[in-house]
Amino acid sequence: MTEQQYQFPKDFWWGSATSATQIEGAADEGGRGKNIWDYWYEIEPERFYNQVGPEYTSDFYHRYQEDIALMKEYGHNSFRLSISWSRLIPGGTGEVNQEAVSFYNHVIDELIKQEIEPFVNLFHFDMPLELQEIGGWENRDVTDMYQQYAKTAFELFGDRVKKWFTFNEPIVPVEGGYLYNFHYPNIVDAKRAFQVAYHTIIAHAKAVKVFKKLGIKDGKIGIILNLTPSYPRSENPADKRAAHIADLFFNRSFLDPAVLGYYPQDLLDLLAEYGHLPEIEGDDAALIRENTIDLLGVNYYQPRRVKAKEHLPNPHGPFMPDWFFDNYEMPGRRMNEYRGWEIYEKGIYDIMINLRDNYHNIDSFISENGMGVQNEERFIVDGQVQDDYRITFIRDHLKWLHQAIEEGCHAKGYHLWTTMDNWSWANAYKNRYGFFSVNLETKERTPKKSAYWFKRISERHGFDD
Ligand code: BGP
């Protein structure tokens, strides 16, 4: 085969990503316990788009064979799923649920049979309800329960699963649950938010520690972070400082401890200055330092554009990260008109160059990137979603990823968010992202045009312009 203009390595990971609560369904089946999403929907259904709750999903629990066959047919050599903590260990601690073990064994075996490598994530926003009731990540004991859960999963599935992730986007439950009121428990309190963020890193490091101790053959352990490059409005020092602080809060608060093994000193100084340092225990620094990751998943959707604060906050009001910056609506920025997020493909390259230069060029991959579209039915022609906009979106991001690889970045793969259209937290079915559309009544799957395109590029490991 002749070399193509955008040629990726032969062992590049092509695939897509999902999470348990968003695809499994069967919340009352197979002995699963409740998580915070089941509960929040019970008490406040009006907080969910069209009042649709998590039980209304694409039903992967019963249709995983069909879904895995589709992945195979449409060019996947890898696939990310998450384990539901409350399915594997109902209540979060104690007995392992054998029906869950059997379900995940079947899924993993089926993937391997189809030569699709399973990438398994342990926590995707889905705290078991019982553990939230004792404080969730605010309660340090929960980090030990999480370590035990992680150990259980490694022991059960580590003979076949070689790529593990401790958390997906750990900043999101902090922002949603403790700062901006879009996830349960809907608390708005920065001090508690920083404690939650800090305990998440402690839980992460404890899981990495137990993973390394178990010595899983050929196993890699990582974390998945939603990195939002933070671009200042101008070169003006006040704008640059605002962008730097946003970067500290939203990217580096997880990236630095997970990859480098320590927190940015600027962040610690800032929190100390405002009396918001979390409670830290004596051996924590060593725990974090000694348990850095092997592999980083990068979720990239859009950048963050930042300007200096125009009006200084009331120093007696509640402390918030956005005391230090304002979001900046840059004139002329291109938007995904179907979702309202900016499209800036070069961000993917800037992230990779940053990892190469400042994070010892750690092995990484794009673990989520994708284009959400409202009312995607309007693009159906002859029964198929004609998602040319998604093909363009993926292709333009891949071009910049290719450029990063050419410049020596260790980018190993690309996973689209998501495999089949799925339920997405408070947004429920508002935005569709999948390669496969799902008829929510019959659960029938139909490949979109992008699935055919992706099959071709993954088979040829690249494309021409
Ligand atoms: C990511 C999450 C996914 C998914 C996606 C789309 O941040 O990891 O779980 O929800 O965002 O989100 P939305 O449906 O709100 O556009």
TrEMBL record:
<comment type="similarity">
    <text>Belongs to the glycosyl hydrolase 1 family.</text>
</comment>
<dbReference type="InterPro" id="IPR001360">
    <property type="entry name" value="Glyco_hydro_1"/>
</dbReference>
<feature type="active site" description="Nucleophile">
    <location>
        <position position="368"/>
    </location>
</feature>
<dbReference type="Pfam" id="PF00232">
    <property type="entry name" value="Glyco_hydro_1"/>
</dbReference>
<protein>
    <submittedName>
        <fullName>6-phospho-beta-glucosidase GmuD</fullName>
    </submittedName>
</protein>
<dbReference type="InterPro" id="IPR017853">
    <property type="entry name" value="GH"/>
</dbReference>
<keyword id="KW-0326">Glycosidase</keyword>
<keyword id="KW-0378">Hydrolase</keyword>
<dbReference type="InterPro" id="IPR018120">
    <property type="entry name" value="Glyco_hydro_1_AS"/>
</dbReference>
